[in-house]
Design a protein that fits this description.
The structure holds 2 protein chains of 2 kinds. Chain A is mainly alpha-helical. Chain A contains 11 helices and 4 strands; from the N terminus they run ααααβββααααβααα. Chain A has one domain. Chain A has a two-stranded antiparallel sheet with strand order 1-4. Chain A has a two-stranded antiparallel ribbon with strand order 2-3. Chain B is α/β, with parallel strands linked by helices. Classes of the chains: A mainly alpha, B alpha/beta. The interface between A and B is large, with 43 and 44 residues.
Chain lengths: 314, 680
């Protein structure tokens, strides 16, 4: 009997499965950075905490359906319906939050050069963070988990239903975004604005609308990522935005900021680095690895894997 | 030109923040010249007496903490405010300074005693400690020694980290610094043998002065903090109003223009980064000495943001502004919010509202920080005390004065070549520049004799400005050579090209918009002045003399344009008319004492009378020996000024000759007017 070509270490397989799940979440979150950066050349720190607020919106949406804590699980149509409802509410509300941030805090600064825009997004991020801290409190909350526990054995590792669900949702959303950007009129206007805002404006593109769309889509995807976070980790708290946001931003940079494909690939890579690095190096060094990647990519390959942006001046 | 009044440099710690005092009322009985120094003296006198007037240890402690943050804000202000580099990981340098002292003055490291330590014991840096079987080294480096040492260590890390990253664009740099700011506390947490990890350092020695230990009372720390802040204010002001500070602000305003005016961007950015880091390192020493403990949590991202909020609130780039911002926000946190919470509780009990009785505003300080950031950015970006001041309008008399034309006869030190030169001053040979698939210049050759005026003409997009960019090092050539005064300059960075003697203006004006007319011209002199950071700091007589001479020369150069610019020397250039901005740009280029001046459409946007005036002025500069290359669309100007004309079309040289020859050249007519015009 021929020996199998190679046997996979179950621990490795398990970490790849985990990494892909994290990666799907980071990819969704990274898309928001990339969409806004592609159009405004603005690093949006508010995105960190739009994600965090999104996780609370998702929690409240599930609780509104009578689901709270880990005890109630659903199956069949009820589960599908609840999830569609939760994702729709979370994405819509997060998207609106993003649009509101753009309208109130960022549009008046459009055209102001320098770091004013970025400083403003830091301020907005702080406001969101502290509003949740002061209203909800500092403790971490149990997230509703309506998913039944279904597990499969894959090469000795465990694959859970929630992980398959995360992959499915993330893939569907990313495909949808790809179609939107490449096929629709507004999507084409977005790509045109990203290439040359001035020229796009002269060709009749409503740049305000394009910017608003980018903020809506980016924030809605952050909402989806936030709900995934809650379902995956079974908790949420006011502090989740910072670490996840910074990792997702690293993903966007690694993939090439401004590139939609890059954000997806970068997200998956960062997810894998986090899970495999945690397994084979040490969890306490994971962030050092990720931030070192961030710095090294920016310094030595600023356009990332798929990017067109040049990070150096002149 | 002896009647020109040379503006004096800003002096001492005062800078310009108290300019309002010259007009303000409370000290009106003082002569205007004395008002600002008196205010500053009063502030310091009050600060010195505060612990005596108000002997409450908790309050003195709050102010001492606030002074620590003021020192940090001053450091970040050098990096963000002056040099325009957004640093979101500034607290990392604070951590480096803090841990340097913490480790060097505690029991954290206690290696086995060997004879290796004896010289250090003799110097008083370590002590030999023997107790029940242990025989170890106790580090006890003096606070006063560690403060400058920690500053130097932090500056070293600033250079180490800045060298590869400072060429990044502003927002990318912000992210890289954020990453660095994250890594440092994690590393601190993960190397417990040196730092005691997440538990934090304990038992850090209190500073001693002549054998007397500071202990835990707040007052001595208050005075050290006050001294540190005073020193850093003085340092900031001296640097800001010097060659160094002007170079930093020029980089902040327009990096490319700064480079073409001779500012070595990498060097100046590193200097800013290192200076800011040194401020943080020194402050870290004080911080840890005062707390006698240090944990990684004290140096995380929120601290970097808090310092940023302080300088945004006080006024980015304004030295007194950021001090005020830091003091207000810190004292708001430790004094006012507590009191306000108490009042609200009282009000809540009075009107029987539950949540008012429980509200704790001190916990919402970060929310207030966020609101301050957004509000200041939207409504008052210049902060409480703006760094750039609006100068009073011209007097009626100055406004209605008839335009005078200045002379250039007495202009000194233009750097123009005297006497004849062997060979051409500038020789461009087979120069090719390619942008992706587009060939912007194809094998262009031209020679410019010394003392001549060459005009470069051609339709839009023919490669004229690219020629200037390639000569001045802004774009790199794919092939060919550029020889200036006999040596190759192709591939040299812009600031080196300027040092060799080529200065330029830009088609679309690249001034430093928030600097004054005089400051713009003084930046042009950057490469010709020698004051370094130390000279600027100490304001030695040599530095003062150089600064005064530079200002004198700047006024002479501005006087070329008669009374167009001289009454406006202290105006911010963004407030000038378009034609005056063009004149400032030419004056800035002349200040670099060029041998060769490249003018890119100098008369664009000027009316016929102004055009004629400028053409005359260019002609007189040429008569003084300056060699000039001119890109120009107005053919009357070209005919009037140029001895020879080069015509470019689609990146190729299609003709060269005297203006009269060029007018008859069929190739030129075809390029300008099309094929049918030629046959007509």
């Amino acid at each position: 009997m021929p020996r199998p070509l190679m046997t996979l270490d179950p621990v490795f397989v398990q970490q790849v499965i985990n990494g892909l799940s994290l990666g799907a979440m980071y990819a969704l979150l990274a898309l928001g950075f990339t969409l806004v950066y592609g159009i405004l050349e603005l690093i949006n720190f508010a995105h960190f905490n739009v994600f965090m607020v999104g996780s609370f919106i998702g929690m409240w949406a599930l609780e509104a359906l009578g689901l709270s804590g880990q005890s109630i699980t659903l199956s069949g149509l009820a589960l599908v319906g609840a999830l569609i409802f939760a994702f729709a509410v979370t994405m819509l509300a997060s998207g609106m939050l993003g649009v509101a941030i753009e309208r109130i805090a960022l549009r008046p600064l459009r055209g102001v050069t320098g770091t004013a825009g970025m400083i403003t997004t830091i301020g907005v991020s702080y406001i969101l963070f502290n509003v949740i801290l002061l209203t909800v409190g500092a403790g971490s909350l149990n997230y509703p988990n309506p998913l039944p526990t279904v597990r499969w054995d894959v090469a000795g590792a465990v694959l859970e239903l929630r992980q398959v669900l995360i992959w499915g949702v993330a893939l569907a959303l990313m495909l949808g975004l790809q179609l939107f950007v490449s096929r629709t009129r507004l999507g084409k206007a977005m790509r045109a604005t990203a290439q040359d805002a001035e020229a796009a404006r002269m060709m009749g593109v409503d740049v305000d609308r394009v910017v608003m769309t980018a903020f809506f889509l980016g924030s809605a995807l952050a909402g989806a990522a936030a709900l995934i976070f809650g379902l995956y980790y079974n908790f949420t708290s006011f502090i989740i935005g910072y670490t996840a946001g910074l990792r997702a931003f690293t993903a966007a940079v690694l993939g090439g900021i401004g590139s939609v494909t890059g954000a997806m690939v970068g997200g998956v890579l960062i997810g894998l680095i986090e899970s495999l690095g945690g397994q084979y190096v040490a969890t306490r060094w994971t962030d050092v690895i990720i931030f070192s990647i961030l710095i090294l990519v920016l310094v030595f390959a600023p356009s990332g894997l798929f990017g067109r942006a040049a990070a150096t001046r002149s | 030109m002896s009647d020109l009044k040379v503006p004096a440099p800003k002096t001492g710690v005062i800078g310009e923040s108290f300019a309002w005092a010259r007009r303000a009322s409370p000290v009106l009985w003082l002569p205007p010249r004395l008002r600002s120094p008196v205010i500053v003296a009063a502030i310091f006198a009050f600060a010195l007496l505060f612990p005596i007037l108000h002997p409450n240890d908790a309050d003195i402690d709050s102010v001492a903490n606030a002074l620590t943050y003021a020192a940090l804000a001053l450091g970040l202000n050098i990096v963000v405010g002056l040099a325009g580099l957004l640093d979101l990981g500034y607290a990392a340098f604070f951590a480096i300074g803090a841990y340097a002292y913490g480790v060097a003055a505690s029991w954290q490291l206690a290696p086995q005693w060997t004879s290796f330590w004896e010289p250090f014991q003799w110097l008083g840096l370590v002590a030999h400690f023997q107790d029940s079987g242990s025989d170890v080294v106790h580090f006890q480096v003096s606070f006063w020694l560690m403060m400058p040492a920690a500053a130097a260590l932090a500056a070293f890390f600033g250079v180490l980290f800045g060298a590869p990253t400072l060429r990044l664009k502003g927002d990318y740099l912000a992210i890289v610094t954020l990453g660095f700011g994250e890594i440092v506390p994690i590393v601190v947490r993960n190397i417990p043998t040196v730092t005691n990890g997440a538990m934090g350092l304990n038992g850090v020695m209190a500073p001693q002065l002549f054998g007397w230990s500071f202990g835990v009372s707040a007052t001595p720390y208050y005075y050290v903090g006050l001294g540190l802040v005073a020193l850093l204010i003085l340092t900031s002001q001296h640097l800001k109003f010097s060659r160094i500070g002007r170079a930093w602000m020029a980089i902040r305003e327009d990096e490319i223009a700064a480079a073409t005016m001779g500012v070595d961007r990498v060097k100046m950015k590193l200097l800013a980064f290192a200076t800011g880091a040194a401020f943080a390192g020194a402050t870290g020493t004080l911080f840890v000495a005062k707390l006698q403990t240090a944990t990684p949590e004290m140096f995380m991202f929120p601290v970097s943001v808090m310092i940023l909020v302080m300088i945004v609130f006080g006024g980015i780039g304004s030295v007194w502004g950021v001090v005020l911002g830091a003091l207000i926000l810190q004292l708001l946190q430790s004094w006012f919010l507590e009191d306000l919470s108490q009042w609200l509780h009282w009000l809540g009990r009075l009107i029987d509202v539950g949540w008012l009785q429980r509200i704790e505003l001190a916990g919402s300080i970060e929310l207030i920080f966020g609101l301050i950031l957004v509000t200041m950015m939207l409504y008052r970006r210049q902060g409480l005390i703006p760094a750039t001041r609006r100068v009073a309008a011209l007097t009626l008399e100055e406004q209605s004065a008839p335009v005078t034309r200045g002379g250039v006869d007495s202009l000194q030190g233009l750097g123009a070549l005297a006497g004849a030169q062997a060979g051409p001053l500038l020789a461009v040979d087979n120069l090719t520049v390619r942008f992706g698939g587009l060939v912007a210049l194809r094998s262009v050759s031209l020679a410019v004799p010394a003392h001549s005026v060459l005009a470069v003409i051609g339709p839009n997009g023919s490669g004229k400005s690219t020629l200037f960019n390639a000569v001045t090092g802004l774009v790199s050539a794919e092939g060919g050579s550029v020889r200036f005064a006999g040596s190759e300059i192709a591939g040299k960075p812009p600031h080196v090209v300027l040092e060799r003697g080529i200065a330029r203006t830009f088609q679309n004006l690249r001034l430093f918009p928030n600097l004054t007319v005089l400051e713009n011209v003084l930046v042009g002199m950057h490469a010709r002045l020698h004051t370094g950071a130390v000279g600027a700091l100490l304001r030695l007589p040599r530095t003062r003399r150089e600064e005064h001479a530079a200002r004198e020369r700047a006024m002479q150069i501005l006087a070329i344009f008669g009374n167009r610019l001289v009454p406006r020397v202290d105006h911010v250039v963004s407030s000038l008319s378009y034609a005056n901005r063009r004149r400032v740009e030419i004056a800035r280029a002349l200040a670099a004492q060029p041998k060769l001046l490249l003018l890119d459409e100098p008369t664009a946007g000027m009316n016929p009378a102004e055009t004629l005036e400028l053409a005359d002025q260019i002609k007189s500069l040429n008569r003084l020996g300056l060699t000039i290359i001119l890109i120009e669309h107005k053919l009357d100007v070209v005919v009037n000024l140029a001895e020879r004309v080069v015509v470019l079309d689609h990146g190729e040289k299609i003709a060269e000759g005297t203006p009269a020859e060029i007018r008859r050249d069929p190739e030129v007519i075809r390029a300008y007017l099309g094929r049918s015009a030629e046959s007509a």
